[in-house]
Amino acid sequence: MLQVLANRTYRHLFLAQVIALVGTGLATVALGLLAYDLAGADAGAVLGTALAIKMIAYVGVSPIAAAFAERLPRRSMLVLLDLVRAAVAVALPFVTEIWQIYILIFVLQSASAGFTPTFQATIPDVLPDEKDYTRALSLSRLAYDLESVASPTLAAALLTIINFHNLFAGTVFGFLASAALVVSVTLPSPKPTVPRGIYDRTTRGLRIYLATPRLRGLLALNLAVAAAGAMVIVNTVVLVQAQFGLSQRATAFALAAFGGGSMMAALLLPSLLDKIPDRRAMLAGSGVLAASLFIGVAAQNYYILLGLWLAIGIGYSLAQTPSGRLLRRSSSPEDRPAVFAAQFALSHACWLATYPLAGWLGAEFGMTATFLALGLVATIAVLFAAIIWPVHDPDLVEHMHEDLNDLDPHIADAKRIGGGYRHSHPFVIDSHHPEWPRSM
């Protein structure tokens, strides 16, 4: 897996991702402490609102940012967004009012909503080989999982010698280092083939996404992933400390079991995806998530919960990590940032629905009902994905063109059939192909 780091451009981008993730993790810990410092017992409500603001920014801002991404050099855009995030981190220690937290969080997460999909869309252009790109996706999954473990640990160690306000300095360093690493390499920036209006550019990624059968299946799987993930993130502390009567340390170990399962799957995925198609792997992972939620009804002790969270971590990574491969297959280079932004927005819309559902159901009806309800959501999502994502899903798709000029270069290699032209090539939704062809 690590051989992909021999590519200098990718190596610098991966290091930029890792350093920025650690900085973001430190900011998350510091933000919780800042909220408690300002709001006391109401800190949970403050953090809940901040989380909702984060998701709203992700859903609403990423398609707009993608509209401008095709007009700006990718390197300049990524560096600018890193600098915006660093500026917000500089300002956070000086906050004295709750509303100031909300404004700064919206700016910070809006910058991240522009940065992350643009960054993700750049990797397949840097690593055009499918196997290298798969390894990069697994490394990225590992980076996210390790960050969830390493950042709180590092923050705990630092808090023994510094004030929590100083943790924000680590965030500033992370974003500045990320910007420096991006500046150190040359990034491809595909140019749009035709000028487009702002509405077209803002909605283009969503229209391509929703017109592509495999991506509609991916959207359904996003919901299954969010249902299981929300159960873990929202209710682990309730299960461990309120239901089982254990300590904060036990809560941390439970979350580590989830992260460990995800890392195990990420390590195995490159070799697994060489042998089985993405569809089978992702449906299997989502099936594990749905089944685990139903089994959770019988999780009557802590050790069963640890095994269950490990299984959910495995299913989570198996269902989510290959999504970049689908997005790459389903978009032309110039449309890739917009399609990645659509995935970013739509997947976070699923989380925006499941986060409050997991919390509300748990508070009102208890954990058994929550496991059952979220298991039902995940099961319906998996079944829907299996139906709308065709089993036979080739890259090369034979199709007809009946509305192109005879001299259009796109049909130079096509055969004249009746009133149109037939040919096959790697099929994506674009200006020549506004709809997915029916089976011929």
From TrEMBL:
GO terms for cellular component: plasma membrane. It is a multi-pass membrane protein. This is MFS transporter. Keywords: Cell membrane, Membrane, Transmembrane, Transmembrane helix. Pfam families: MFS_1. Signal peptide: none annotated. Residues 9-393 form the Major facilitator superfamily (MFS) profile domain.
